Amino acid sequence: MAYEVQKTDEEWREQLSRDEYAVLRKAGTERAFTGEYTDTKTVGVYRCRACDAELFKSETKFDSHCGWPSFYAPLAEDRVEYIEDTTMGMKRVEVRCANCGSHMGHVFDDGYGTPTGQRYCINSISMTLEPEE
User: Quick one: which of 10, 77, 109, 118 has the most CB atoms within 10 Å?
Assistant: First the structure.
């Protein structure tokens, strides 16, 4: 897929820290319960750390007790893309930023009690939070 933001691997490595690069560009995962946004309740917009695209609103964040920030919906459907992920012996749906193709996390159909029934399990390191003023 052609993304609006396109950079070489070398440019991504220069822009991102080693850990950010491992998650955003190589589909890694931060350890559970270690991310800076896992428990935050700050009102605002979560943006892609790689390209600054707005992806999630804090109003859709909920505590799923899974160890990663969880949302029940993206800001808009065209903000993310979905990729079938069959790595690690599982069948999952990867969530990527539709603007730059960076890995955000995965979406699961186990968001019980949420308006969508979905749980977007997103790595804190893949986002920045812009607090509402």
Answer: 118
Mapped onto helix, strand or coil, the DSSP state of residue 44 is: strand
Q: Burial code of 77-86, b = ≥16 C-beta within 10 A, e = fewer? A: eebbbeeeee
Q: Which of 120, 3, 116, 109 is nearest to 50 (CA)?
A: 3
| Active site (catalytic) residues | 121
In order of their start, the domains of the chain are 9-131 (2.170.150.20)
For 75-122, write each residue's pLDDT tens digit.
999 999 999 998 878 899 999 999 999 999 999 999 888 999 999 999
- The secondary element (H helix, E strand) that includes residue 21 is helix 18-24
Cα separation of 83 and 64, whole Å? 22
pTM for this one? Answer: 0.94
Q: Token digits for 23?
A: 């998650």
Q: Where are the alpha helices (DSSP H) in the chain?
A: 9-15, 18-24
- 28 bridge partner residues: none
Structure tokens at 81: 């893309």
